[in-house]
Amino acid sequence: MMIGFADVGPTTKSGVAELYAIYLDPEYIAKGAGKVLLEACIDYAGRNGFKAMIATVLTKNSLARAFYERRGARALTETETLIETGGTKEKVISYLWDNLQQAD
Ligand SMILES: CC(C)(COP(=O)(O)OP(=O)(O)OC[C@H]1O[C@@H](n2cnc3c(N)ncnc32)[C@H](O)[C@@H]1OP(=O)(O)O)[C@@H](O)C(=O)NCCC(=O)NCCS
What we know:
Elements: E1 4-10, E2 16-24, H1 33-47, E3 52-58, H2 62-70, E4 74-85, E5 88-97
Coenzyme A binds near residues 23, 24, 29, 63 and 64.
């Protein structure tokens, strides 16, 4: 049974990975699965030579923003921009994890 997923990969910037998505079935939110998924992504990025990881999220997504902040990410306030998505305009903001653990 699948209860959620996360996807991490490269960006155009050398050494910087991106958490493209992290989603849980609503029934499984706040039960520890998000933490496991995020830590697996951070670990994967570090082991694959990335020094940092970013994630971009809707400014209004306070649940995900608080979750990222509790897990060591810093809001890059200067990145906040308005985007057009599905016919509506929404603000997004990027988060940064730096000093990722490097592989030996
Ligand atoms: C963002 C998201 C993945 C975060 O997952 P989450 O379930 O809230 O995160 P966690 O599983 O780590 O749980 C959060 C809290 O629940 C607590 N918790 C409750 N029951 C727990 C349990 N049984 N085991 C471990 N932790 C538990 C944790 O302590 C944690 O608190 P902390 O961070 O202060 O330690 C999830 O909210 C989600 O899928 N949101 C919708 C999609 C979305 O917005 N994605 C981001 C944009 S792409």
